[in-house]
Amino acid sequence: MVSEDIKKLAKDIKEIKIQGASNIEKKAIDEIIKYIRKQKTEYTEFISGLYENVQHIVLQRPNEPKLRNSMSYILNKAQEMLTINQRQILVDDIKKYEQKTKEGNLIASENTSNMIKDGDVILTHCHSTLVEESLKKAHDKNIKFKVYCTETRPLYQGRITAKRLSDYGIDTTMVVDANVCNILKKADYFLTGADVVLADGSVVNKVGTHAISVVAEHYKVSHTVITTTHICEPQLFNNLRRAIETREIDEVWGKDRPKKLKIENPAFDIVPNNLIDKYITEEGIFSPETLYFWINKVNTKSI
Amino acid sequence: MVSEDIKKLAKDIKEIKIQGASNIEKKAIDEIIKYIRKQKTEYTEFISGLYENVQHIVLQRPNEPKLRNSMSYILNKAQEMLTINQRQILVDDIKKYEQKTKEGNLIASENTSNMIKDGDVILTHCHSTLVEESLKKAHDKNIKFKVYCTETRPLYQGRITAKRLSDYGIDTTMVVDANVCNILKKADYFLTGADVVLADGSVVNKVGTHAISVVAEHYKVSHTVITTTHICEPQLFNNLRRAIETREIDEVWGKDRPKKLKIENPAFDIVPNNLIDKYITEEGIFSPETLYFWINKVNTKSI
Amino acid sequence: MVSEDIKKLAKDIKEIKIQGASNIEKKAIDEIIKYIRKQKTEYTEFISGLYENVQHIVLQRPNEPKLRNSMSYILNKAQEMLTINQRQILVDDIKKYEQKTKEGNLIASENTSNMIKDGDVILTHCHSTLVEESLKKAHDKNIKFKVYCTETRPLYQGRITAKRLSDYGIDTTMVVDANVCNILKKADYFLTGADVVLADGSVVNKVGTHAISVVAEHYKVSHTVITTTHICEPQLFNNLRRAIETREIDEVWGKDRPKKLKIENPAFDIVPNNLIDKYITEEGIFSPETLYFWINKVNTKSI
Amino acid sequence: MVSEDIKKLAKDIKEIKIQGASNIEKKAIDEIIKYIRKQKTEYTEFISGLYENVQHIVLQRPNEPKLRNSMSYILNKAQEMLTINQRQILVDDIKKYEQKTKEGNLIASENTSNMIKDGDVILTHCHSTLVEESLKKAHDKNIKFKVYCTETRPLYQGRITAKRLSDYGIDTTMVVDANVCNILKKADYFLTGADVVLADGSVVNKVGTHAISVVAEHYKVSHTVITTTHICEPQLFNNLRRAIETREIDEVWGKDRPKKLKIENPAFDIVPNNLIDKYITEEGIFSPETLYFWINKVNTKSI
Amino acid sequence: MVSEDIKKLAKDIKEIKIQGASNIEKKAIDEIIKYIRKQKTEYTEFISGLYENVQHIVLQRPNEPKLRNSMSYILNKAQEMLTINQRQILVDDIKKYEQKTKEGNLIASENTSNMIKDGDVILTHCHSTLVEESLKKAHDKNIKFKVYCTETRPLYQGRITAKRLSDYGIDTTMVVDANVCNILKKADYFLTGADVVLADGSVVNKVGTHAISVVAEHYKVSHTVITTTHICEPQLFNNLRRAIETREIDEVWGKDRPKKLKIENPAFDIVPNNLIDKYITEEGIFSPETLYFWINKVNTKSI
Amino acid sequence: MVSEDIKKLAKDIKEIKIQGASNIEKKAIDEIIKYIRKQKTEYTEFISGLYENVQHIVLQRPNEPKLRNSMSYILNKAQEMLTINQRQILVDDIKKYEQKTKEGNLIASENTSNMIKDGDVILTHCHSTLVEESLKKAHDKNIKFKVYCTETRPLYQGRITAKRLSDYGIDTTMVVDANVCNILKKADYFLTGADVVLADGSVVNKVGTHAISVVAEHYKVSHTVITTTHICEPQLFNNLRRAIETREIDEVWGKDRPKKLKIENPAFDIVPNNLIDKYITEEGIFSPETLYFWINKVNTKSI
Fold this sequence. Notes:
The structure is a homohexamer.
Chain A: H1 4-14, H2 21-38, H3 43-60, H4 65-80, H5 87-113, E1 121-124, H6 129-140, E2 146-150, H7 157-167, E3 171-175, H8 181-185, E4 189-192, E5 196-197, E6 203-206, H9 209-218, E7 222-226, E8 262-263, E9 268-271, E10 278-281, E11 284-286, H10 288-298
Parallel strand pairs in A: 1-2, 1-4, 2-3, 4-7, 7-10
Antiparallel strand pairs in A: 5-6, 6-9, 10-11
C-alpha cells in the first residue's frame, strides 16, 4: 500500500512542483527514509511494501535516471537485510550513498576545474550541477575563460546555467540551441553532464546533446562529459535498448497549436560512445570504454 | 530628401509591423514605384533622390537580402535611363522583375516537387515559401511523404511551416531545433530555402541551418536548397565577407534576463558550399559551384 | 499496332536471348529503322504507330537506359518531321546518332588511356566496354599497369572483363565482390562505366558500385567514371527519383532456396555525385556537376 | 608418429568432408582425446607425440583459428602434466574447456538478444553460430526485427544463415555481397562473429567483412561483433602480423577460367579495431581495446 | 641550331643563377623575342629553329610550368603565322600575352584582398607573388589580419614571404613546415598560389602543400588558391599523369650525408581537387571543377 | 642551497652542452645520487635541500619530460624515507628505477619488432631511441622493410635516425618534413616515440607529429607509438593543461632574420588520443585509453 506522504510526493514530482534531478532524488530519499522508519511489519511484508512505494515514485518520471538509480540502490540494499530489525543499517547505507555521491561530485568538479586553462572557450548545453560547479571552481582559481551556453528548448534549463555562471562573474554568453557552428569552430571543449551512462559508454543526456556533439566532432572539439561513477548502473544489456521518456507536447507548443500537427518531445538523446572524448569523474579520467570497464570488471564493489 | 511615404514604410519595416522577406520586398517595390511616378525633377536629381530613398529603406534591415537585391536592381536600371522621361520604362522593368521572380518561384517549386518520392522523409528548418510550395505541390500529386520541421528559435518561424503544411493535410511533425539526429539518421533530404547565395555557392540562411547541415552530412543526407537565380547577386568578392545582421537580444531572453549575461543573436548562418548537395532552381539543378558559374559566366544577362 | 518483327525482338530481349546494353540498343535501332522504312501511313498515324512500337520494346527492360535513350532520341526526331516524306531524314539522323555514339566511345577510351601511368593499380567492377577499351588502349601504348576486377554477382559479368583483359595480355586479377579493401588500400583508380547519369551528376551503375565507391573514398582513391555525353538524358527532375529495375530472384538463388526467404535483386545502384571524382568523356574531363551543366546549359544542342 | 585415425581425420578436414569451424574443432578434440587415452609411453615421448599429432591436424587448415586455439590449449595443458599418469586430468581439462566454451556461447548470444529492439534492422555476413543463436533468442522473445544477410561468395555460407533464420520464422532477406549501401543507410547494426581477435582488438573474419564494415561506418551504423573470450589468444605481438589463409582459386572460378587470369582467394579479412563499435561476449560488453585488456591484464587466469 | 644567347640563358637557368618562376619566364621571353627578331630564314626553317631554341630552354627545368606555358604559347602563335614577315605580329602577340598575364595578376590579387576581413588568420606556404600582393593590398585597405607562413624546406622560400610581409608592416609569424595544427585549428584560410592547374582542377604546387591541405580540411579551413587563368594549359589528358621534377638531393642534406641514405626531393606536390575549396582568379571565383570547365568549354578563346 | 656540482650540471643542460632526453636524465640522476650521498643533515633539512636542488635542475628545461619524471620519482621516494639513515634505500630505489626503465625499453622494442612484416613501409619523425632499436631488431630478424624518415626541423634530429638506420643496413629514405602525403598513401605505419603520455592517452612529441598524424589518419595508416609505462606520470588533471616549451627562435632563423618578423618555435606537439592507433610498451599493446587505465587503475604500484 502506498503511504499518503509518498502519494503526495509523487504528485508533486509529476506536476513538476519538485524539479531538478538532484532535488527530486533528495526529496524522494528523505521520504523513503521516513517511510522505512515508520514500518513495523514482518520482513517479507516490509520488502514488498517498500517495493510498491518506491515503484510509485519512480513511475511518475520513468526516465529520471538519477532518481531510479538511488531507488534501485535502496531496494538492493533492503534485500540484503536479514531481519526487519536491520532497518537502521539500511538507513545508514542510504545516507552513506548520499554522502558518497555528494563527495564524488566535489572531486569530479575539482578534477574538471584543473583541466581548464586561461583562454579556453567552452560550450555547454542544458544545466548540469557538475558543469556549473566545475566552472565556478575554475573561476575561483582566477582562470580566465569564456563560456557559451545554449538556452535548451523546450524548458530553457540553459537559462539556469546562464544566470548562475554570469551572476558568479564568469564571462558567459547565451545563444539559441542550433547556433553552435561559429562557437565550436573556435572552442576548446563541449562540456556536458550525463543523465545515465549506458553499458557501452554511450551517454543519455538532454535532447540536443547528440546533434551538438556531432558538430563538435566536425570541428575536432573534445566532447568532455563530467559525471560520477555513481550514475552508472551495473551492466545490463537491455540498458542499451532503453526507451526514452516522451514528455508533454505542450512544452513545445501550447494549446494554440494546429490540430493536425504532430510533435515529438523526447526528454533525452543518446550520444554514441564514439563521439565522446572523455569522462571526468571522481575516480579520474576515463574513455567511454574504460568507464564501464572500471565499474563492471575492475572495481565491481565500488557502488 | 526622403519622402513621407517612404519614411512611414521604413518605420513599419523597422518595427516589424511589416515582416516576411517577400512581403517586405513587395511593399517596398510598391512604394518606390509610387515615388518614381511622382518625381518631376531633372535626371541627375532624380537619380540621387531615388538613391537616397532606396538607401533609407534598405538601412532599416541591413541584412534582409531579398529587399536589398530588388532595390539594387531598381538603382541599376535607373542608371540605364537616359532621360527622366524614361521613367515608365523603369517602372515596366521593375514589374517584369517582380513577375519573373514570381514565375521562377513557381517553376523551382514544381521542379522540387518532382524530386520527392513515396516514402521520403524530409527535414526542413525555419519557414521558406519555396519549401512550403514544393511540398504542397508534391502532396497535390498524391505522393505520400513525411515532413519534420524545427520550431526555429528565437522567432518560431518553424511554426508557420508546421501550421501551413499540417493544415494542408501533409504528415507533419515538429521538434525543437537541436532534436535532429534521430530524424536525420533515417531521412532522405534536409530541404531549405536560401536568403542569399554567396559568390562561392555558400548559402546564407536562418541561424541553425549550418549546424543541421553538418548533422545531415554526418548521416549522408542530402542538403538540398531551393532557390531562384534572382536571389543571387552579381559576383562580388566582398560578398564573401558579408556581415551578418545581429538582432535584438530581447528576442532570445526578455527583460528579466540576468544583468551580466551576454547574448549573441545573429539572424543568419553561412553554410559553406561543401555541405550543400544541390540547388534546385527555376533554371534546373545546380551544384553550389555551377550555380554561381551559371549566373556570372554563362547567362550573364539573365538578371 | 505492334509489328510482328518488333514483337519477336521484344520477346528475345525479355528472355535475354539478346543481351548487353550496346547489343540490345543496336538490334532495336536496326528493327526500328526497318519498321520506319516500311510505313506508308499518314504523318499522325505514323507517329502514333512509331510511339507504340518503341514503347513495346522499351517496356521489356524498363531500366535498360541505353536502349531507352536512343528510342527517346528517335521519337524526338520523328516529331521534328513535317511530313511523312521526311522519313529518310529521320533514318539518316538515327544513323548519325549511332555513328556519333561510336566515335564518342573511341575518344572517351583514348582519353582515359592517356590518364594511365606505369605502375598504376586499377580496380573495376562488372563489365563496361568503355573500361575494357580504355585499358586495352593503354596496354597498346606499352604502359605497365595492373587491373583487379570483381566477379560481379549475381550474373558474373566481371568474368567477361577478366577474360577479355587477361586474354589481351593485361596483368589481371579477379576477386570476389566484397574483397576490395586490401586492393583499394594501395590502388590508384576505381574505374567504372555508367548506365545512366542522373540530373545531379549521380551515376546509375551495376549493383555493388555504390559500396565499392564508399570504400574507395575511405582510402582516398579516385572513382573515375568513363562515359559519353550521349548517355545523359536531357535534364528531368524526376530523373532523380528513378525506380531501379528489380530482376528475377532466381539469379541470386535458384529453385532450391528456402520457402520463406526473401531476396532483393536490384540490377543497379545509384552512386551519389559526391563519391565520384571525375567523368572522362569524349568531350573531356568533367566533375559530376559540370557534366550535367555542360549538357543542359552550355551545349544544349549537342545531343 | 601420426596415428592412422589422426591421418584420416586430417584428410577429411583437408578435403572439406568435415567443415564448419565448430564442427572441425569438435571432431579434432574427440580424436585427440581418443589418442591421449591410447598412449602408454613415457612422459617426454607422450608430449612429443602429442605435439606431432596436433601439428598434423592444424596444418591441414593453417588459418582455421578455432581449431588452432583449442589445440594450443591442449598442448599447454599437457605441458603442465607432471607424469604420464595425469592423462585423465588432461582429458578432464579438455572437456571443461569444451563445456566452458559452450556455456560462453549461450551467455554471449543471450546478451546479444537483449540488445535487439522491436523495429531493428540488422545486416549480417557469412554464417556465425553466435549470430544465428542470438537472433533466434531475440525472436523467441517476440521481438519483431528484420535481418538482411549476404550470400557470402565464394562458398555461399550466407545461404546457411538465410535458410536457418527464415526457416525459424525470422523476417530474413538475402542480397548479393556488394549490395549493402541501401540496407546500411537505414540499418541499426552490422552484426558478425569473429574468427580470431588480434592483440589490438582487430578482428579476423570472413573475407568481405572489412569492406562492409567500412560502409557501416560511412552510415554511422554500429559494427557489433559477438564472440567469446575463449577465442582470444594470449597476447602475441606477431599475432598482429598473422598471414591470411589463401584458398583454392577453383572456389572462385572453376577449370573453365581463362589461362592467364590470376585469382586471389583469401579466406579472411582483418577489420581494424577502429571500425568495430563493440564486442558482446559471455563476460559482458567490451570495446576492441578493453576486450584484449581484459584477457591479458585483468583476468589473466580466465582461459 | 641553338643560338649562343639562348645557350647562355639556359645555362644560367640550370645553375639557378636566374630563379623565380616569373623571373625565369620574363628572361626567357625577352631572349626569345630577341631571337625572333634576328631570324632571316624561310618560314619552315624559322619554325623548326624556334622550336629547337624553345625546347633547349624548357628542358633545363622540365617542371617550371610558367616557363613552359609561355613557351608553348609562343610556339602555337608562331604556327599561326603565314609567312616569315608576320614576325612583328608574333612579337606583338607575345607582348600582349605578357601584359595580359600581368593585368590578370593585379585583378586576381585585388579580388583576393576583398575577401579578407578584420581578424582573419591566414596560413600560407612557400612564396607566391599573388599571395604576397593580395595580402599587401588587404593591408593597404587597413584590414587587420594575421599571417602565418612556413619556412618551406628545403629552399626556405617561405622566408621570402616572411620578410616581404613583415617588412611591409603585416603581422607575420613564421613556423617550421610541420607546425601547422595549432595554427589551422583557429585559422580562416590556407592560402596558396599554384604552379600548374591540372585538367581536373587539381593543383601542382610546392612540395608540402598537399599535407598542409589535408590538415586544413581536417579543421574545416578553406584551402583557397589564387591563380590566373593564364596558368591553365589547354585540356590534355596526359596532364593528369604529369611527372614531378626531382631536384638535387644536396638541397636536403649536403655532402656530409650518410653514404647509404636515400633522399627523395620532389619539387612539387599534387593537391587533389577535392581538397581545394576555391580558386580566386582575374575572372572571378571558381571551384576546381568550374575553373577548367571555364577554360575548355566556355571561354575557349580566352588564352 | 644548490650545490656547486648541481649548478654546473644545470648550466651545461641549459646551454645544451648535455643533450638528448635519456642522456640528460642519466647525468642528472648521477649527480643527484652523489648529492644524496654527501648530505649529513637532519631529515627535514635533507628533504628541503633535495627539493631545492632537483628544482634547480628541472627548471633549466621545464619541458624535458623524462628528466622531470625521474626527478619526481626521486622526490616521492625521498618522502617515503622515515629517517635520514635510509638514504641508501633511496639510492637503491633510484638505481632500480633506472634499471627497470632500461629493461622496459628492451622489451618494448622487441615487441615492436615482432609486429613488422616483410614488405612493410614505415614512416617515422624525429629521432626516438625506441623506434631506432625496434627497427634494428626487426632488421636483425631478416625482415625486409622500408623506412622513410623526416629531417625534423628546426634541429634536424631526423638526420640522426636517417644516419643510424642507413648505416645499419636498413633501406632508409629521408624527406623534408611536409613531404609525407605520397609516402603515407602507401605506408603501413607511422611509428613514433613519445615524450610524455598525458592523463587521457594523448601524446606529447616533437613538433610536427600532430600534423603527420592527421595525414596518417587521412590515409587510414596506423599511428603506432612505442613507449614504456615509466614515461607516464601518475594521473594529474592539470597534466592535460600542460604548457609546451618554447625554444629559442634562432633555431628557426638566425640573426639575419627580418626585424619585425615573429617566429613561434614550440618544441612539442600534442597528438590527441583519437589519432593514435596503439601504444606498444614493455607491458604489451594498449590503446590510448587503456594505457592510462592500466597505470592508474589496475597496476597502481607498477611505477
